[in-house]
Amino acid sequence: MPALADADNILYETIKQKILDSQVQMKKTESFTMVELLVVIFIAAILTVIGTPLLRGRINSAKWSEAETGAATIRAAVRTYIAEKGVNYNYSDLEGSLDDRFVYESLGFSNTDLNGRYFAQADYNLSNVSAHPSSCVITVTSSAVDGPPGTGTLAADGTWSVAD
Questions:
Q1: Alpha helix stretches (DSSP H) within 31-92
Q2: What is the CA 11 to chain-centroid distance, rounded?
Q3: What confidence score (pLDDT) does residue 5 get?
């Protein structure tokens, strides 16, 4: 019988060792190696470097949409003004900055109607006001500290463009 007890003991120790080995193996597969972690950090850094300028461009584009909306509002007011005054009126007094009291009151604005987050009323300038056809050119440059760079232009034909 002692031989049988020794065999059971050996079998017990063998099974115990296999269980311990499998637990050690599981612990090894459950964690990441330092190289794997560094690769993930490296990929995240590359995506950040690539993504930041793209995101900044989208942010500036969103800021310029404020100016485009303001310029379209001014254009509509100019066209209404031209319709009221007629084709024989001299529109040169309407040209200039929208912080000029005569200009903004002639178009039906108050001194703060066109103030926004990134553009103030003084940032809008009218030029080339004409009754043939009723049109004007509106240029916009932000004076805000966090405003977008460049100059936006709403051309006489209604096309919007931004030049850096």
A1: 34-85
A2: 69
A3: 64
Q: Spell out the residues 6+ positions from residue 164 whose beta carbon is closer than 8 angstroms to its own.
A: 149, 150
The pLDDT confidence band at residue 29, using thresholds 50, 70 and 90, is low
Tell me the sheet residues that pair with 124.
Answer: 140
Q: 18 — phi, psi (to 5°)?
A: -65, -40
3-state secondary structure of 97: strand
Report the alpha-carbon distance of residue 112 to residue 98 in Å, rounded.
10
Report whether 70 contacts 140 (CB < 8 A).
yes
Q: Give me 140's structure tokens.
A: 């916009």
Rounded to 5°, angle at Cα 17 from 11 and 20: 145
Q: Is the pLDDT confidence value at 48 over 80? A: yes
Of 152, 162, 164, 163, nearest to 74 (Cα)? 152
Query: The sheet that has 160-163: what strands, in order across it?
Result: 96-97, 124-131, 134-140, 151-154, 160-163
Mean pLDDT of 23-48: 81
Assess contact for 121 and 114: CB atoms under 8 A. Answer: yes
User: Tens digit of pLDDT for each residue in 116-158?
Assistant: 999 999 999 999 998 888 889 999 999 999 999 999 999 999 9
Instruction: Report how far residue 94's alpha carbon sits from residue 125's, in angstroms, rounded to the nearest whole number.
Output: 10
